[in-house]
Amino acid sequence: MVNKIAIKKYPNRRLYNTEQSSYVTLEDVAALIKKGFRVEVTDVNTGEDVTSLVLTQIIMNKAKESNALLPVSLLHLIIQFGENLLHEFFEKYLEKTIENYLDYRKRMDDQIHAYLEMGMDFSSLAGKTFQDIDPMKFFSNVKSRSRDKDQG
User: Fold this and answer.
1) pTM of this structure
2) Which among 2, 8, 65, 58 is positioned nearest to 28, based on CA atoms?
């Protein structure tokens, strides 16, 4: 189970970590998330859940540092077709795609790690693979299939 940390957002834009009983910055919140925690941010005055707003602010600050988060062409589409389209896309597809990618990447990393623990020599494996590939044979097969097609 993922640990959830409640954070209160005050009108002066300060964030208060209720678990640590201390004020935190957006960078601190990002660090908590990177450690695997889930945060829930609540506006102190209204009781409204503003987690999405705070997390978006963290992402936008990172984007500002690197001067890009999303390609300009995608930003144009988002503006042109509205935020409902974007919300639907993120809700239905993007999150699942990223989860699948991270799962696949972890499985590949685990597999390579297992091969390394077994002492598998990747350089000899790659060498054998390249020996088995005869580019001239490949191109001659393509050429002969092309000739057969022209004659048939």
Assistant:
1) 0.55
2) 58
Between CA 106 and CA 101 the distance in angstroms is 9
Question: Which residues, other chains included, contact 65 with Cβ-Cβ below 8 Å and sequence gap of 6+?
Answer: none
- Residue recorded with tokens 């091969």: 115
| Spatial distance between the Cα atoms of 59 and 82, rounded to a whole number of angstroms | 20
pLDDT value of position 88 = 78
Quote the CA–CA distance of 39 and 37 in Å, as a whole number. 6
- Written as six digits, the tokens of 126 are 């790659």
The answer, yes or no, to whether residue 4 has pLDDT greater than 80, is yes
Q: Is 88 exposed, middle or buried (0-12, 13-18, 19+ CB in 10 A)?
A: exposed
Residue 109 CA: distances (Å) to CA of 46, 91, 118: 45, 28, 14
Place of tokens 């690197």: 66
DSSP 146: H
Q: Sketch the domain layout of the chain as residue ranges.
A: 1-69, 71-133
